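>> received
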Amino acid sequence: MLRPENAGSPAEVGEIGMDREAASPMDLSEILKEGTKESHDRAENTRFVKEFLKGKIRQELFELGTVALYFTYSALEEEMDKNAEHPGFAPLYFPLELHRKDALAKDLEYFYGKDWQDRIKCSEATASYVERIHHVGKHEPELLVAHAYTRYMGDLSGGQVLKKVAQRALRLPSTGEGVQFYTFDNISNPARFKELYRSRLNTLEMTREIREKIVEEANRAFRFNMEVFEELDKFGKTLGEVVQESGVPLHDGKGDVRKCPFYAAKGDGEMGCPLQSIMAVVQSCPFQVVIAALLALSAGWYLL
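>> returned
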């Protein structure tokens, strides 16, 4: 089996090729995808996510979201490190490629300054999420699969959309300050890496009962994320309306379709850029309404 530190090597291509040939509805990756579809749809239709995708995000909320992510990933990666050799999780241990804690620390230093650790605190909703992750790591480490899958696959998909939205809406530097969380320096091809990750998921040996518990835990992870979104949304309402120069699009539907963030978010290579059709509609419909609706539907799977 390919070791995590060798991801991206020529051997990766062969492993992914085998995954494509052997994929079936009984694969854990497919079971998770189908078993969390409803939770995924609810999460991406929360008010916080929809407003974010329209570019209507205050920097205060973005900073608090980054704080929530920091505490979440600190807990998750601590438990992953402790269980790196657990047979029910080891194949999914990719610290160099995936770990986000250090990147989030850089983002927090950018927003809060050198003393950022003294200026942040874990919110109530995030604390509940963190507590559950630590419980799983200590008592049921095989369920870490659910939390890792839910977070990292989203970061490599719709997270790349949110990076561009945040940079434009908050006028963040194009050099990446403030959005290091979304930058995976050790993954040159996110789509291919996601295929590798799914193939690793499918190699895990477990009983039917454990598979069902993993799906249940993944849905629980979605609920925790939605609770964080709702908490941020409530705080956002105290700040009043935010006015941006414009919503997104970030891609005009022209040129290389693979550069469209919505195309990348799908990860399957089966569809072209939806903005090619959106741009035609914009000519005859109110701009903000059409873009807002289509972005909410097209953004793909992404959580906080």
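>> Residues 208-237 form the longest helix (30 residues).
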